[in-house]
Specification:
Number of strands: 13
Order of helices and strands: EEHHEEEEEEEEEEE
Largest sheet: 6 strands, antiparallel
Strand content: 35-45%
CATH architecture: Sandwich
Structural class: mainly beta
Mean pLDDT: 87
Radius of gyration: 18 Å
Oligomer: single chain
Helix content: under 10%
CATH class: Mainly Beta
Low-confidence stretches: 132-136
Length: about 170
């Protein structure tokens, strides 16, 4: 490493926790985005600035779910439970996970994480980083509600709900 290059390092204590809650309170989480604290630029198309994966420390409070049941079109996610007790819903039902458990979801595999204990459910999630806009970006499907989350040309997430249709519908 040359004198001009400095190893990127951050301590979890230095990363602010970002909270997100749904309007009626069913969903809630607090997370520390470690990758962004290490300099990741999510909107950059330069792979060196985007990083090949994201790392976050997530805390789901008692009685809450991270988010609705969903499947990513392009993103893979690896989880490692730090503390607490969670329920992980997938196509086969629900599985209880605790500290030390690791699990993985590939693109197209619907999943949902729920706090199933009396204390915070805390885990690390490592996700590859397919969002680069255009045809190669990620989208997310919500099977319970029939919604899609897509990223527009300004890298903003847009939620849409519609019906399946023919590819050429409205085109000619």
């Amino acid at each position: 490493m040359s004198p001009d290059e400095i190893m990127r390092k951050v301590n979890l204590k230095e990363i602010p926790e970002q909270e997100r809650k749904s309007p009626k309170g069913k969903f809630g989480r607090a997370s520390k985005n470690i990758s962004i604290a290490l300099g990741r630029e999510p909107e950059s198309l330069d792979l060196a600035k985007r990083h090949p994966f994201d790392l976050a420390l997530v805390r789901i409070p008692r009685g809450k779910s991270l988010c609705p049941y969903h499947a990513h079109a392009a993103e893979s996610e690896l989880y490692l439970v730090v503390s607490g007790r969670g329920s992980v819903r997938d196509k086969d039902g629900s599985t209880i996970v605790t500290a030390g458990d690791a699990f993985f979801f590939q693109p197209g595999e619907a999943h949902q994480l729920i706090n199933a204990g009396d204390e915070d459910f805390v885990y690390y999630v490592i996700a590859d980083n397919p969002r680069s806009g255009g045809a190669t970006g990620d989208s997310c499907y919500y099977p319970d509600s029939g919604k899609w989350a897509v990223v527009n040309e300004r890298f903003e997430e847009v939620i849409v709900k519609g019906n399946e249709t023919d590819y050429f519908d409205g085109e000619e």
